[in-house]
Amino acid sequence: MINKDALINRFLRYVKMDTQSDDTVSDLFPSTEKQLNLSKLLADELKALGLKDVSIDENGYVMATVPANTDQKTPVIGFLAHVDTSPDMPGKNVKPRFVENYDGGDIQLNPEVAIAVADFPEMTAYKGQTLIVTDGTTLLGADDKAGIAEIMTAVEYMVANPAFKHGDVRIGFTVDEEVGRGVDRFDVAKFNADFAYTLDGGRIGELEYENFNAAGAKITVQGRNIHPGYAKNKMKNAILIGQEFISKLPETERPELTDGYEGFFHLTKFEGTVEKAMFQYIIRDHDMQIFEHRKRLMTTIADEINAKYGDNTLKLEMTEQYRNMREKVEPVYHIVETAVKAMEAVGVYPLVKPIRGGTDGARLSYMGLPCPNIFAGGENFHGKHEYIPVESMIKACEVMLKIIEIYANPS
User: Which residues are designated catalytic?
Assistant: First the structure.
């Protein structure tokens, strides 16, 4: 039996800690020191639970082992979650509240902000459950503090119930996942697991072993500011040149107009003056050939802009972020099949689907640690409409434990 109160209390304690990462910082790791506060707390809590090999390094990575209590030969299974929250939404002064016995209607977070069923129709699936919501001014932080709380609660269960037989279970907490650098310095050899699962997915039942190929693009436009009264044939308005670049990208290939395996160009930031403008994109696609085409299209547009307005008017900097983990997971597909079996065993309908994003697991898979992604239970991540059903969190714990049990007791 999962300790529901302990699970909730952990989650509330973690989300009230500001651990927002910063995508504008490139010379620090982690990008914000405040992430280390949660890493240190988790290390202390793991030690308090009796784990003997708890470590936290200078990068903020936490690792520990729940040692095997069976002679049965079992694989070493890892479970991971990340401590940081999105840089795109305030993560300070989070004030979670409970909606008991949810009635299936709109939830008013404050006088100006509501989670409306018309906007989020999936809410009705949670009628009768207990939802944890925000006050409408910050994100909640279920991405990924729900995953952390669930892992910690599963650890507590294994420690408190020696009759539950299991092999070695490795626990890992990472930093800076939200800015795409979560495992830059992660020591896979030290983690020493045969395979792992990230608890970083959304709604109950999600199981993902395919993700986007991903890149980031920073575009800088150098304009020329001239008094508007004398600007003819002289001024180069960096803002308008930036808009011209944007207009040349496919209008329908944006996140809000795509789904499933469809990729996109996502404008995440735009700022500037006549003299200089800067904007950023993320580029995503499951198909590697289409992904490469997207990158080439951006380069072609940049060349066209420079041919029109002069060399070095527009500078395009492209950065690879992560790749589709599918090719690394398929050779050990039993880890997906076992997760499906575990979900079905605890009464969860598996939703095997591609991730429209990425996780630490995508990069870990290419670092030698196959690592599909399991639901943590939250909805509407990265925004003030975020919420999570308590019942989904409990099921995530049960799925973890069932995976461990299946590998410790092969039929």
Answer: 84, 177
